[in-house]
Amino acid sequence: MIEADAEQCDGVQVQAGAGLPKSARQEQFSLGFVHMVAAAAGCWIKTHATDYDGVDVTIASSARYRKFYGPQFELQLKCTTQHRYLTADHLAWPMKAKAYTKLVCPDRFIPAYLGVLLIPGDGDDWLDQDDARLLTHSRLYYERATNLGNLPLEQDSRTVHLPRSNLFDVAGLEAIMAAIGDGGDW
Known about the structure:
- There is one protein chain.
- By secondary structure, the chain is α+β, with helices and mostly antiparallel strands.
- The protein is 20% helix and 32% strand.
- A hairpin with a 2-residue loop joins strand 1 and strand 2.
């Protein structure tokens, strides 16, 4: 880790090595994680200039499936170091009503998913890298937005449950694309 020493830059006091705030680092790390899995699965990422519609990226395939060529889905991505949300069978994730309502909107044209990346607590432990490998002790759990249920009008938040069996890895992403591309229920 770079030591954080104060320096002068054009007369302005700056903190050397401080970099991005932890929340911004988590956001960038989760996007990088998704990019790596998508590339390994033969998919690609469409980025969004805004997060207004409750999604961060669109993941697309250029493959032909039984019913559709080039299926895609939108992904709302979250990242946390809070391992207390992980249970034996799911990851519980609290969502505010505004973001939740946009994500589960029943008349979305493109299917939407929620993904939560669980990472180690210390930023120094996010990656282990040497000349032979790149390893992360992180895992991303996902769920289709249509499976998250409705939010009663009087509620200002909802905790959703992402099954541990829904692991966002190459096989998981390939299964999502096949379900959409084959015309499955989404």
